[in-house]
Amino acid sequence: MTYSVAVSGASGYAGGEILRLLASHPDIEITTVTAHSNAGDPLAAHQPHLRSLAHLTLAPTTPEVLAGHDIVFLALPHGQSGQYTDALAATPLVIDAGADHRLTSADAWAQFYGGDFHDPWAYGVPELPVAGGKQRANLVGASRIAAPGCNASTVSLSLAPGVSAGVIDPSDIVSVLAVGPSGAGKSLKTNLLASEILGSANPYAVGGTHRHIPEIRQALLGAGASGEVRISFTPVIVPMARGILATSSAPIASGVTDAEIRDAWESAYGDETFVQLLPEGQFPRTADVLGANTALVGLAIDRAANRVVVVTAVDNLVKGTAGAAIQSMNIALGLPETTGLTVNGVAP
Ligand SMILES: NC(=O)c1ccc[n+]([C@@H]2O[C@H](COP(=O)([O-])OP(=O)(O)OC[C@H]3O[C@@H](n4cnc5c(N)ncnc54)[C@H](OP(=O)(O)O)[C@@H]3O)[C@@H](O)[C@H]2O)c1
Q: Is residue 346 one of the residues assigned to a domain?
């Protein structure tokens, strides 16, 4: 069976990456692409690298245009998806790349986003440890999927094995992330001009204000954290188009051995294709995962500081968004999970 697909936000970064991956997915036919201010333009005017889709034209994003497909991807600014999801009640599978359906707490939504709160959907991070197993089980047969925030899933995947196994203390997490500006989308912003970011490292959302904080807390509570999850989270924009390098640390739980710590991550990810723990003493680079649906994880045990340090690299547009969405789609549809996705990055 071939599934017909509509991708909204197709002129943007997340929509473009969803299209790039779907274009080589054997079970998918991309029939409709939509945009907002750029509706009416050829897709190729905004995604000139997508040569196999150059025949498509951007339609306006309306419920009528999106209806009638087997699968709809929403890749819109947060707060915009909810208005379409109600109108797409008859669509068998809807996948939202935005934040609108990620949070289970209306209070957290009000505090970090504001505006209407919408129902939480199945969270699209299959490898995430959750009580009793992996998030993958919750995606089987799902009809509504919320793809993750890129920074949030990177940090959650970094620490959830340790939280789940009880070998780290989640009440004192510190995460500092080097992030590429594509994570902020394609629309023009002064602080993202080349002249502002080339040759500079620029922190933003410092001091507990970043919108991905409640998503990480939710994931780590779901992984079995007992008690408080507290995270100091600082992203730093660096001059690379895409990529996240997240360095996260948390105190070692008392009485835990080094072997027990490493075993927590080995048992969580040993059988996973797309989340890979590097050998002891090795740490990832963003260059190793560009274009790949891979999260590479390096683990250090710093006894002097009494902290576990986890360094994780992902491509924000692949494992952080589009790849996670398509991997989750494969699981929901009962297709082989890796279809249309690669573990291999583009280097140098
Ligand atoms: N970038 C990432 O790495 C990343 C990672 C994870 C999740 N996400 C999420 O993916 C979503 C899209 O992000 P992005 O980075 O792709 O942003 P983007 O590059 O700015 O693209 C936004 C897209 O949404 C369309 N759009 C803007 N306002 C709209 C409206 N009022 N109604 C309908 N469509 C509208 C735009 O169309 P026009 O161009 O025609 O105006 C464009 O196609 C966001 O919710 C973001 O949080 C992004």
A: no
